[in-house]
Write a structure and sequence with these properties.
heterodimer, A: mainly beta, six-stranded mixed β-sheet, four-stranded antiparallel β-sheet, 12 strands, about 50% strand, B: mainly beta, 11 strands, globular
Amino acid sequence: AQTVTQSQPEMSVQEAETVTLSCTYDTSESNYYLFWYKQPPSRQMILVIRQEAYKQQNATENRFSVNFQKAAKSFSLKISDSQLGDTAMYFCAFMKPPRQLIQGAQKLVFGQGTRLTINP
Amino acid sequence: GAGVSQSPRYKVAKRGQDVALRCDPISGHVSLFWYQQALGQGPEFLTYFQNEAQLDKSGLPSDRFFAERPEGSVSTLKIQRTQQEDSAVYLCASSPDRDTYEQYFGPGTRLTVT
């Protein structure tokens, strides 16, 4: 079974600083998908960024980027120029690919989360 | 367009009562997932539908939990004879196609069993 570990329960930085959230995972799969989701106090889970394991290039989305180290099974999220609206719980998640092409998305395995606070 | 909606947003049940939680996925989304999120924890998978077929229910914690999606759109998660350990936020997510694998989440239903 796959497991996802986020070793930082809480982090706090000043506005405009850069912050990195850590995530490690365990799997015997060679291909898979990794995600970072953001959950603000409103509880609505929002996708921040995704990475396919077969792609060597790290994914980026505006101020958000990942450092994907497949051999080390590490998937960290870097937030540049942090903003007050980035305050939220952040969850790292793993997904196995479907066994058949006709299948769609598969279940997500989540880490325990990191509570990130951006201070003014 | 409209996102995933869930109702009710909050539910308080006395121990032993039955509850039904509703999920309206994004129109046209084939896949639908239910997750349970305990306080301060990450969501945990409960069950998964592709259209009306329940393809995976391995995460349902007991036979008191039952989910259905009879017409391949709206889904209901039912919990019979609720227990205090069922208190959690229940999240529903839907996914549009097989290419992006992105799951779109609803706001969740917070269930409190007293």
